From TrEMBL, chains A, B, C, D, E:
One of its GO terms (cellular component) is plasma membrane. PANTHER family: CORA FAMILY METAL ION TRANSPORTER (EUROFUNG). The gene is corA. It comes from Pseudanabaena cinerea FACHB-1277. It is found in: Cell membrane; Membrane. The chain crosses the membrane at residues 317-337, 357-375. One of its GO terms (molecular function) is cobalt ion binding. Belongs to the CorA metal ion transporter (MIT) (TC 1.A.35) family. Keywords: Cell membrane, Ion transport, Magnesium, Membrane, Transmembrane, Transmembrane helix, Transport. This is Magnesium transport protein CorA. Mediates influx of magnesium ions. It is a multi-pass membrane protein. It comes from the Bacteria. The lineage of its organism: Bacteria, Bacillati, Cyanobacteriota, Cyanophyceae, Pseudanabaenales.
């Protein structure tokens, strides 16, 4: 049926995500000027040119092609097989508008797809379901994660997915399952594919969380044993990133819940049972994010306590040394005075035999007494 | 149809917003004396004299005039075209009361419009919808924002908006869309215009939030690298301002939600779909405000930790220097004593050959030992 | 119709509210012994003897009399005009019990009126509505507020109000509006009067809040510029008082909401629209109380940070001075030693020409080096 | 009808509540081994042997007897009069099981009664209502309170109450009201008695709260004026005890609310109005507990601030004294050096006339300058 | 009927739980790769090989056998008696898949059972109820607890339980009750057995909580009397573990509540009354966990306060010693100066008779004055 099968998903172009990139997630958003008419699309100048991939399958065969224009998919949409159009990149207003026309998208839907980031949500239209989710993927350097908006438009026998970037998606195993006909996916409808995609997105949070689990465990040792300024930075960074994760996953729960409860002709009751499983996983992710956030908050408390502990210890050391030697210095100072010893009664100690030995005895007695006092108070040895 | 087309929105008179102005937002409110009859209007003496602008349009033509009295708009209201009366300034009780008569406003509605600030809300009356919202605009100096109450009264084929001030509104692009007939706005009813205005107000929060995002990012660097008293002030200021933003946006969500759910003859179902988009944006704004508030709270924690860190470092330095030199000073003090060296056994070191070199050896040994001890404890070099 | 018109509301007897009075608001309550039968009245021995004022009006005339016994009002109650009986003071069990009989109050209602303080609430009875609210008034000295329970019993054509004290009420303007026939109040029923009284009570929170706004603003400057122990006390005091305000206003919201939603024959639908306005004001008061509470909590944080900052600065100063002079003192101590300079090699510096100048050079070099080090670390000048 | 009237409630045997007893409230609970069959009773070996008191009354007469076995009450239960069986003590499995048989209790009900503590709750059975509440009573030494579970089983014309201990109950006034026929209690049914008992239990929280109010007030003075380690202990103790109170009262609210809403043939609508009053009091208790908890949390903050303040003050003192004297000591050290004054240029000051006076002038100038500097910085006098 | 009765539950093989094991509970989870088809089972390589035990009983007889393959249980399932198949260990994909086939489990159910940990939940299927709970058991060394997922599948006359591990279950008493025919369990259906198992799991939290109660009590003494770094670690550890407990018990409440409310043909109304008791216990466990969490948070506060207190005390000590001796040292330094006493007016004190005694008088006066000052300030004796 299809004549141009290409490999599934091209090797992603190595794009450079700068180090400080993740800072921007909190602050960057593409909103049109206040007062713009609805449907105004904001194209970020750094955005990638969209790649368009089509996978079309039925129980018997499956094929994947890279399309050059959105209109190329029209013949596939008209067939009875399931068509999955995957658009990767938001860098061309023209392509996106033509896409909107091909799929007959409401102007607000197109705006939601393009003007990232949107809150995850589900909206029902006459013959389409719009599902906006956030997909996270671990960074290779283990420092943070990429957060990408994925919009799914589910129609009668097609599904359109729009990703922000060509890199870092979690859909490859699903492409393989379709391609190699593993499991039941090939014999199911578009709603099952939707479930599979949502499931992949939700399960994609787990590896990211595992990274954070390890980082928290490392930090915990560091914060107790050797807290430095870097530790503070790291805790703060983790807290910020967990805040981002939280913002991505919480509304996802409501969105998936809406999908389960909805009476939509597009989603089969059988598939809703599968979606209930996605929902459970989402709740589990939320549980873990909240737990990690609490652990990170605890780390902050321990950091402060460790610092106070350290200051206390330093002060104790200073106090012991100072208060032992300050009286001694005074005593030696006394015998360094130049009172005229020829005048009787003036500093007789200086002329006494054994005066010097007597001086050392006083020194030892005073310092010994003080050290004993400190030892009793528990200041001498810092508790390990 | 209209004979006196003036330019849309006159250039705002440069009014001086004093530096400390924003402090007052928490504490200033125009409430009548307790026990006053309902409908008592409080005119702030600093309030601007109302300017009245009328825009009247249908699919074919649009015209904008500045009116001198509220009654001038009556002929426009009676026509079939959509009339938008925009009143800017609350400084004249007479004008406002006549306005109330022209539009047949309930005395409580007039009170809500004039006695600012009110909480955002929606109230339905027989043939009118009262919508009270807060409009925020960035200050030019990037320090904070202006918060202005906008009251919208939606009627059959008119909309009345009342703003606090003639400056700083976000409606200019909408005036332009009407004037230049961009988009579908000219062919729609007053409810669509209402949506457009609400949309502009909600989207107006985004540029303000972007400012705060940048300020938070700057502050974050400052708080880790070089926390000073100013940093504390800045964090506190941002927290206060975010509190204000929060107070402005939270009830807005409920108000817009009420508009969506209401079965009003004045608002078309089609327009409610657009309002759902406004609602999503409002939720997004709330999300961001809450996120920023949490980030600001984190900054406060980091500030305190940085301070403790700094105190700890200073103490460590003092301790190292003090505890190294205090014993040395004692030793030198001992050999400055004036014990009579002619008495045998009294300070024999002073007469020993090489006594002086021996003294320096002791000094070096003691200080070396202490420094080694500090180095092992990690006190010598402050962790960077 | 009435023969003894007296002046409206007698000048309040100057009663002395002691300074520490407000402390007690948290802890004082008149509860009967556990196990007492319902309806047991607790008369506080300090309570004022009740004054009873009656205002009776219709559209044509209004009159105010001070009654000596509760039974004196019976003829007025039987007439068609609206009767407002205002009882001020809870100091006589006899009077209150007779009042209960005249108005046919349930024993629990009488208990709620007398055994102050009660939580604000609304309870419906066959032909009466019991409304318990808290009325706050600013103290003249600007330090805190008075909190007084007001019980309103609304009947067919009468309203009974019971106040704790004869002083400090917010009803005077309403008495004037009735007396001088301002607004529509004279032509309305008892339910409108009820609205007017509730409105006055709710609006009475605004001046009190304004006081707190000013105090918070003053405190904010103080806490940043010159935090002392008094500042801590003041913050704590404001937090306590806002806690009291909060406790007074929160349940008020529920009570007024109940009044709006209730289908009561005693309250007209038209009046419920006015009550909706009261409700909005109550929510606004709650908003402000919560905002002020958050601001006060912020002040506490800033106070602590300022203290840490101050300690840090002091430590830095001590460290600079100590670590500069301690080595110098050691050096001068060395040359104060009494090693026998006749023995060759013993302290040759003492006999060197220019030895003394050399000594000062060393001193200057050491102290200069240290000061340069401190300057580079930024410890020399405290950041302003 | 009854032949053995004894005095109402025997004088409680003085049992020794150890000092550390209250610590255990958090941790002690009688739960059967996991996996035990339902209805397994756990008898604490320290529990008191049950005393069984019966009060039986109607409008005409009332009588109180101490029973030796549970079965003794059967004739009373069969009569038309109201029977109140009060069992005090949980120390005998045999008695409790026979009690269960006499009253035909579900095995889970008996378990709930005996295996203390349970959460307050209400459960309906065919012809019985089970009400489990917590009764608190002040300790005589004013340190904390006793918390005792009371189980009420309301039947057709009887009520069974089971208390943990024979001491410290709040029911004595009710026994007196029945005995002396005060109020309407004698002419009412068992449901009114139930109300009276619940009312006594709820009102029993107020004296306990009054104690805490006083302790908080005392602590507040202490924490500002003279915070010590004991203060910390006291704050912590109050926080723990308020936590206990809170745990006792919160579920009580739900339980009483359930009683009010329930359509039970055992509870008259008229009595439900009285229970509404209990509910209000419960909410008031909750309000106060939460307020006290917040006040206690504030005290903790103030304690920490006071400590920081004190450390700051001590540091300031140390800094002033140290930095004034350290330079002076250096200067005096300089002139104690032994440079050979015969070599020209070596320490010429020592031989100058008035050198000594000049020295003192320098000393005065340096210390005066430093003190002036400290005075300007506000470090000299600690702000009171 | 059964021919191979073995002892109930084999003695658990002593498996070594390493010390750091519990750290992993936060971070370890068996989730399939994102994008895997539903029903993918993840077998942990450390997981135990499943042991399969069958207990089959009716009112007359009961028998327990260890089965070698899941299919061995088929004849028992077909009989009218109640069959309880207990699978302990998740180490064999083959066994688990065959188990799924025998019991006709949905692929998602099997995934939930195997891919631990799941959130506690209840799901209804046509003829099965899936109940996933968490079972906790104390560790023998009193340090923490084991947390194990138990999945219960309730069918018509059977129940299948799947545990993570062969060790540490709380079901032994129930096996004994069945074996020895104690209570009513033998005469009941599978739903009663389900209740008994859930009850055992919920009650299994109490001994664990008792351990934490004791540890908290110990810690509380430690934190006030002698706070060290270990104390901090211990508090942190308890907080982490309580967080785990909380995560295990909170969703359990919802699950059991769902069981109570559900109209399932598999669960009798009579058994739901028993489940209500489980629900109460779960709420009680939650109450206690939350209380313990709050107590642990309090401990953290006290720890910090104690540290501040200790630092304050050390500083006070240093300050007293330093400020007493520093002036003395200065004075003795003065009289150690070498001003030429032959020049008149230079240091006349040195030649005065009694000059030395005068020196000591000054020393005593200065130090006495300072000590008196400190005593008045309350710095001399640390408050105990």
């Amino acid at each position: 049926m299809l004549h141009n099968p290409t490999r599934f998903k091209p090797s992603p172009i190595e794009k450079d995500f700068e180090e400080n990139d993740e800072e921007l997630e909190f602050y960057d958003f593409n909103e049109p000027e206040p007062g713009s008419p609805p449907g105004t699309l904001i194209i970020d100048e750094d955005a990638s040119i969209p790649n368009i991939f089509l996978i079309d399958y039925n129980a018997d065969e499956a094929i994947g092609v890279q399309l050059s224009t959105p209109e190329d998919c029209i013949p596939y949409l008209d067939s009875q097989s399931v068509s999955w159009l995957d658009v990767q990149g938001l860098g061309s207003e023209d392509v996106l508008k033509r896409l909107g026309k091909v799929f007959n998208l409401h102007e607000l839907v197109l705006e939601d797809i393009v003007n990232i980031p949107q809150r995850p949500k589900v909206e029902s239209f006459a013959d389409q379901e719009l599902i906006i989710l956030h997909m996270v993927t671990s960074r290779d350097d283990g420092r943070g994660f990429y957060d990408e908006q994925v919009s799914l438009i589910l129609g009668k026998n097609y599904i359109l997915t729009v990703q922000e970037e060509p890199e870092n998606d979690v859909f490859e195993p699903i492409r393989q399952r379709i391609h190699r006909n593993r499991g039941v996916i090939r014999s199911q409808k578009a709603d099952y594919l939707t479930y599979a995609l949502i499931d992949a997105i939700v399960d994609g949070f787990f590896p990211v969380l595992e990274d954070y689990g390890e980082r928290l465990e490392d930090l915990q040792d560091e914060v107790v044993e050797n807290p430095t300024r870097q530790t503070l930075d790291k805790i703060h960074k983790i807290k910020r990133e967990l805040l981002l994760l939280r913002r991505a996953i919480w509304p996802q729960r409501d969105a998936i819940n809406a999908l389960i409860r909805e009476e939509s002709p597009l989603i089969d009751r059988q598939v809703q049972i599968f979606l209930r499983d996605c929902y459970d996983h989402t709740v589990q992710v939320i549980d873990m994010v909240e737990t990690y956030r609490e652990l990170a908050a605890n780390l902050m408390d321990i950091y402060l306590s460790s610092l106070s502990n350290s200051t206390n210890e330093i002060m104790r050391f200073l106090t012991v040394i100072s208060t032992v030697f300050i009286p001694l210095t005074f005593i030696s100072g006394v015998y360094g005075m130049n009172f005229d010893t020829d005048i009787p009664g003036n500093m007789p100690e200086l002329k006494m035999p054994l005066g010097y030995y007597f001086f050392w005895c006083v020194i030892l007695a005073v310092s010994g007494g003080l050290l004993f006092y400190f030892w009793k108070k528990g200041w001498l040895f810092s508790p390990k």
